[in-house]
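As practice, study what follows.
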Amino acid sequence: MKKNNVIRIEKNWEETKVLLISDLHWDNPKCDRQLLKKHLDEALKGNHDVLINGDLFCLMQGAYDPRKSKSDIREEHNVANYFDAIVNTAVEWFAPYAHLIKFIGYGNHETSILKRQETDIIERFVTLLNYKCESNVRVGGYGGWVRIHFADGVNSKSFNIKYMHGFGGGGAVTRGTIQHNRMSVNVEGADAIWMGHVHEDYEMTYTVEFLSNQDTVLQRDILMIRTSAYKEEYGDGSKGWHIERGASPKPIGGRWLILKPYRGKNETRQIQAYTHKTL
């Protein structure tokens, strides 16, 4: 499967809605599959694109993995061909949504398996999903770009998303916002910077000044987006690794990205963008 960390999505000049999700940990018993299915079914009903920014899988119950725990494996995956079982059952489960998924990126759980077990679970999953569903899901990177291009023959404008699965810890106070500050220094030309990884949920707006080609001083907004997870680890707060390390309850779900192309001042093409949490 050829990897390309620039994903281009073509859209008509009209409002569009995109489901942004990360950290599904789909194969973990603590994954809220009922909620995940609800959100994917909403995307299916509205024919909305789905983007997955890493840690689709958990993958911690393989042989020789020091993180494994008998309580964190699903019955159907408790077999000799553990990784094969995850890929095969995931293809069956995600098949109804294959035509909506534009890309699947890597998270630290998938890259850990690539390093420890020398197998690329994301590539295997996407290859089999596309083969069985005749879909065109792309393999992304740990980081990369998504360009959503709106055009109707007269109007044309792109919305550029820099995605990065994430790095570092969320922090009890900052909840991951420091990483967005760091990314904003390193990235040029993004309309949104989207991360997951720390299982937090927020949208912030950074407004920056720039100089146009006509020597006009202008401002533009950059959305800083964080999507949380579908794995609920806190429970009743009584025990477990999540509790022992002093972690707090975390939000569950993803975010909907709403994009509205329009003509602004002096007939300039603009895109209004905002997100809201999945319900």
Observations:
- The chain has one domain: 6-277.
- The chain has a mean pLDDT of 93.
- The first strand starts at residue 6 and ends at 11.
